[in-house]
């Protein structure tokens, strides 16, 4: 986590591989906390309303020096576009220069060297009849030399006069820890680096699921991203990436948004590194990254940078915003302090503006190891001062962006040993905690991409909630890709539901420091669970094909028409009457505008008897058999005698001759080229009227009739091979089948598989009974381990608190 470096430290372990020698360099990278202000949602037209809106606004006092300072100016909610432009025009009159402006939220920034700029502008706005929310500085120290602009007096302060002083006055970020010596240690041959966070969240298994995914974009608001890294090839959108760290003015200089640190590239790799058998696996390898460089030369992130980042993301097609930082220079921002309120309000408005445009905002909880529910004391602010204030009272203070309404706040997990049996995940000791945490994610010793310019191997290991947050953003991207119609709030709500399923995988805090939030996310759940499903309308029937009525509960005889409408992400659908298919259709799988009406005319129910069911089945767009994207609906009816129209076999007898068995109705007729339920069993008859045995293909599906002629269902052994037939329709199953919580796999011929099975890039083991194995498997004298999804694991893995290593073929070493 970047920003206020004085609070805690992320550990960066740089792994350099050269000429077969692996070295590890350890350096401490400072981290920050984050604040927020809770205001109403901002729309594109109106800034956020506040119940506690001050009548005259919160205006900072006259400053004690004439250093160039940046200010945030927030006009009152509902200010007109005309008044906004009038307000901008007043800035030069009080010796200021306007910087970035955002009429969408009623906020702009300005720079001035005049100590009384804030009260002077407030007076000018009051005289002009323009209402104010707040005006105040965005930092406590003067702007850096390269941020100075020409002020209205026409005098431009020479860049060289205070260049060294500016840097020295900002000890946060890298400047604060820059004197710490980096040490190198020779790595032993037994040392193994692995992507345990992605493995814990089943990123590779999720990547192998071939569900249709809509394009999704994640903004990484950070130190920049190196787009030339091999593991990020094709993942960074260079046309939409931007630099916001010079006065908060968005610029797209070629090198402006590229990473000159490590942090942003590390975060981007966790989110979207390619699944290419090198380096690491990102959680969402198909996501597009927009790099938003928001750190200045001192690794500080001021309100104007944050506001620029969110406004850019909201207006440039971003879906998810990852925030592995806290806004400087205050760890906890006060909404009532005139020196802090304006910067806080500006950033908050921009975040709510982005949320109002459908973006999901994910943020790090911070690395101070403190309870963030009720902060009282801050010892680390301001982060841009040479000496932070100790014992600063911060009750009611807000971290930005993690504590802003609607922002998902993430704590960090570490692998735990010798804790509860079977549980290996617990809070990392540096991670902040509290009941306001939303998610817990891997954040300790995380291996990810790093700029090749600085790290020869291109990879590094780091700790922090900064590393936990992109794991969550990656899952958010997966959910958005499967549910492109979701708003950011809906994405976060679904993540909370899915994380709760894995809550039990996290160790309960022994010290009472609650950190688990809603639980642990799983990338595989994002692409298999809670999938978009087709919607099946009411099942109807008609006797004449024109007048339709609900079918459920009806008494039917003779021939009828049956219909049902299927909409939404349907790829195939069918209607079954009495277990037999009477209509089928295919669809494009589109989420909207995809409507198909299934209709079957001339359905002769006289071949059935008693209570029967019409069942409509619709397959979604996820071909994985484990996905919950299919839908079904049923309507029950009763077959009754219909006089001359009925052909129901209410009476008759079996007749045998030299060619086989056939059924003679009481009136002397016999069924042919049809199926008929006689007693409790279903029989099929060929064109000559003889009872069929063995395999029968009908409507593209296979059925089996034993030597008695009765249609089989459930498990069936034919010639030593096992098959599974649907209990309702009798149709032969293929692919994955779940029976009473156990998975089986039936190949295209319907035969049950045993032994090793490759499904895409994932290996499974099916026991002699056909049941898919989980846990330990002994085969050929070697041990293998199958995770909860049945997938064979490779690489390093912690199982029940014990570390194991498996070779690429899955064998335990």
Please specify the SSE layout and strand pairing:
Blueprint: E1 8-18, E2 21-31, E3 58-59, E4 69-75, H1 81-90, E5 96-102, E6 107-112, H2 117-127, E7 132-137, H3 163-168, H4 173-177, E8 183-186, H5 196-200, H6 203-207, E9 217-222, E10 242-243, H7 263-272, E11 288-293, H8 303-315, E12 320-323, H9 341-356, E13 360-364, E14 377-378, E15 392-393, E16 408-415, E17 425-427, E18 439-442, E19 446-449, E20 459-462, H10 465-482, H11 488-501, H12 523-528, E21 535-536, E22 540-542, E23 549-550, E24 554-556, E25 559-567, E26 572-577, E27 580-586, E28 595-604, E29 610-619, E30 631-639, E31 652-657, E32 660-665, E33 674-678, E34 681-685, E35 694-698, E36 701-705, E37 714-718, E38 721-725, E39 735-739, E40 742-746, E41 755-759, E42 762-766, E43 775-779, E44 782-786, E45 795-799, E46 802-806
Parallel strand pairs: 3-7, 9-11, 9-12, 10-11, 12-13, 13-16, 16-18, 24-30
Antiparallel strand pairs: 1-2, 1-20, 2-8, 4-6, 4-7, 5-6, 14-15, 16-17, 19-20, 21-25, 22-23, 22-25, 25-28, 26-27, 26-29, 29-30, 31-32, 33-34, 35-36, 37-38, 39-40, 41-42, 43-44, 45-46
Helix pairs in contact: 7-10, 8-9, 10-11
């Amino acid at each position: 986590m970047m920003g206020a470096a004085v609070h805690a430290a992320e550990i960066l372990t740089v792994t350099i591989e050269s000429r077969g020698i692996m070295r590890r360099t350890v350096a401490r990278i400072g981290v920050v906390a984050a604040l927020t202000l809770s205001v109403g949602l901002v729309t594109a037209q109106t800034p956020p309303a506040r119940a506690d809106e001050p009548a005259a606004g919160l205006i900072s006092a006259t400053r004690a020096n004439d250093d160039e300072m940046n200010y945030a100016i927030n006009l009152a909610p509902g200010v007109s576009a005309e008044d906004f432009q009038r307000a901008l025009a007043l800035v030069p009159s009080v010796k200021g220069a306007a910087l970035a402006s955002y009429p969408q939220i009623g906020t702009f920034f300005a720079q001035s060297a005049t100590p009384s700029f804030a009260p002077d502008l407030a007076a000018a706005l009051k005289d002009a009849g323009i209402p104010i929310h707040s005006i105040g500085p965005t930092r406590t120290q003067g702007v850096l030399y390269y941020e100075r602009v020409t002020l209205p007096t026409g005098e431009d302060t020479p860049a060289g006069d205070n260049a060294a002083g500016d840097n020295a006055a900002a000890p946060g970020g890298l400047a604060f820890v820059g004197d710490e010596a980096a040490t190198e240690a020779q790595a032993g041959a037994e040392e193994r680096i692995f992507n345990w966070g992605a493995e814990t969240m089943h990123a590779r298994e999720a990547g192998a699921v071939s569900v249709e995914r809509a394009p999704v974009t994640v903004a990484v608001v950070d130190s920049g991203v190196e787009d030339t890294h091999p593991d990020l090839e094709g993942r960074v959108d260079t046309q939409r990436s931007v630099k916001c760290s010079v006065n908060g003015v968005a610029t797209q200089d070629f090198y402006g948004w590229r990473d000159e640190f490590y942090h942003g590239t590390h975060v981007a790799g966790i989110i979207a590194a390619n699944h290419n058998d090198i380096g690491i696996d990102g959680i969402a390898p198909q996501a597009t990254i927009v790099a938003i460089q928001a750190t200045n030369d001192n690794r500080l992130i001021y309100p104007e940078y944050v506001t620029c980042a969110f406004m850019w993301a909201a207006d440039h097609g971003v879906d998810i915003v990852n925030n592995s930082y806290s806004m400087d220079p205050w760890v906890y921002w006060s909404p009532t302090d005139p020196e802090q309120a304006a910067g806080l309000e500006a950033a908050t408005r921009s975040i709510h503006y982005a949320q109002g445009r459908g973006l999901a905002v994910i943020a790090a909880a911070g690395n101070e190891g403190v309870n963030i529910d009720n902060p009282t004391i801050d010892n680390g602010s301001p982060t841009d001062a040479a000496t932070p204030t100790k014992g600063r009272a911060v009750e009611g203070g807000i971290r930005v962006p993690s504590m802003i309404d609607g922002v998902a706040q993430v704590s960090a997990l570490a692998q735990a040993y010798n804790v509860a049996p079977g549980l290996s995940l617990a809070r990392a000791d540096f991670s902040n905690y509290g009941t306001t945490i939303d998610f817990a994610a891997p954040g300790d010793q995380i291996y990810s991409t790093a700029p090749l310019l600085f790290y020869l191997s291109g990879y590094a290991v780091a700790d922090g909630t900064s590393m936990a947050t992109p794991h969550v953003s990656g899952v958010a991207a997966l959910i958005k890709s499967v549910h492109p119609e979701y708003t950011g709030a809906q994405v976060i709500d679904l993540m909370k539901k899915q994380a709760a399923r894995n809550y039990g995988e996290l160790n309960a805090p022994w010290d009472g420091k609650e950190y688990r939030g809603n639980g642990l996310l799983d990338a595989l759940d994002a692409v298999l669970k809670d999938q978009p499903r087709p919607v099946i309308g009411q099942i109807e029937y008609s006797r004449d094909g024109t007048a339709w009525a609900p079918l459920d509960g009806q008494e039917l005889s003779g021939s009828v028409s049956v219909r049902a409408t299927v909409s939404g992400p349907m790829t195939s659908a069918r209607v079954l009457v009495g277990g037999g298919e009477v209509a089928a259709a295919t669809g494009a799988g589109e989420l909207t505008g995809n409507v198909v009406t299934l209709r079957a005319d001339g359905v002769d129910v006289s071949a059935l008897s008693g209570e029967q069911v019409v069942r409509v089945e619709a397959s979604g767009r996820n071909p994985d058999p484990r996905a919950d994207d299919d839908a079904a609906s049923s309507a029950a009816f009763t077959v009754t005698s219909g006089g001359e129209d009925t052909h129901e076999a209410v009476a008759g007898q079996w007749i045998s001759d030299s060619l086989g068995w056939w059924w003679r109705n009481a009136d002397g007729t016999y069924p042919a080229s049809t199926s008929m339920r006689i007693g409790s069993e279903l029989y099929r008859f060929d064109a000559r009227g003889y009872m069929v045995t063995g395999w029968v293909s009908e409507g593209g599906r296979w059925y089996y009739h034993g030597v008695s002629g009765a249609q089989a269902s459930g498990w069936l052994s034919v010639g030593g091979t096992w098959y599974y037939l649907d209990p309702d329709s009798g149709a032969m199953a293929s692919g994955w089948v779940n029976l009473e919580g156990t998975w089986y796999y039936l190949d295209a011929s319907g035969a049950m598989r045993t032994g090793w099975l490759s499904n895409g890039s994932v290996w499974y083991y099916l026991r002699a009974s056909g049941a898919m194995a989980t846990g330990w498997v002994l085969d050929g004298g070697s041990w293998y381990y199958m995770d909860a999804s049945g997938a064979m694991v490779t690489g390093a893995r912690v199982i029940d608190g014990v570390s194991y290593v498996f070779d690429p073929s899955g064998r335990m070493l």
